Amino acid sequence: MRALWRSLRRHAWPEPLGGRPRNRVYLRERLIALPLLTVVVAATFGWAYADVRADSAALRDSFAPALVGLAEAETSLRIADREAGESLRAGAAVQLSGLSKRYSLRTTRAVQRLNLVARSGALTTAERQELDVVSGLVVDYGNWIAFAQYNVGVPALRDAGLSYARSMLCSTPAPAEKTGKDGYPPCRPDSGSDSDATAVVDRISTLEDRLRGRLADRAALGGGVITAGVVAGFALVLLTLGLWRTQLFLRHRLHLHVSVPLLAAALPLLALPFLTADAVLAHRAQQRVVSTADELSARTSPAIESTIDENPFGDHHPLLIGTLKERVRHDLSEGRLSSLDGVAPWVTPTGLLCASLMGVTLHAYRREYVLISRSGATV
Fold this sequence. Notes:
The relative contact order is 0.15. By secondary structure, this protein is mainly alpha-helical. About 75% of the residues lie in helices and about 0% in strands. It contains 13 helices and no strands.
């Protein structure tokens, strides 16, 4: 271990120029150290940066739309259920006029949102199958509401159809006249295990919990990203010191004010602070999305969501699903430097190219001294 440390120290901090190291030896050490450090920086930083950017893309394109879709489907079904109950209480008139327009719009929206969730790519195979069950239950729910509508003139059959429909929607259904604080019949998801989820709201709540857990995992900085960032930072410090010392060496021994090829190879390093700032912004935006996802599941309600139907052009409630959806979009849009879009895949290849340029340049300088030494010059 001590020998490894001495070797690393010799390559990272060569003896001062005043010690007059041999030119060929010094350039050989630089030929090993600088390209190697460049590869380490490019590989570790490039992987960590691409991972953070990929997390933002996954949240924007997959997880957030799926959570929004599930929340909209659940609230739409509960709004539709209340509308169905109110329409059926009208008695025989509903046979002529049919159920309310809001009932049709909300049930249609719920089916559409479930289809969008299925295509979001955020669900596992098992969760896709669970969502298919939910879609089937929604269809059956509509059939039983239609049964209640058809038998609206027979109170016993009407109530039986409506009650059975609500038992498919909620694990503990309540009659329409028994409303909660929000004006809607109580319909809380079952708090038991996933296997206890039987009704539509239970199953949707279970899917939301799983998605929020995976979203939080994607938004968190994993151990791999943190380790890669530390390694990249340490290697970058050594590389910067090495390039500066090498330029001083070349100025003293070759009388070059600056090595243009080495300077060109080092120029991409100037982009690292901007890439780091972009990654920090992205991570902060991801954390805000986690908070918004919690609000989507815990603080939205059919009472709040129905305000958009009653007053579509008024001030929007801050906990409307559409408002939260726009907040997610805004956070992820602002949580990046847009000029750096598409840069992540090129970080590592660019670093490898710079390492190659450094190696070729230093090899050329060392080869020059080899030729000089063969003619008897001082090396």
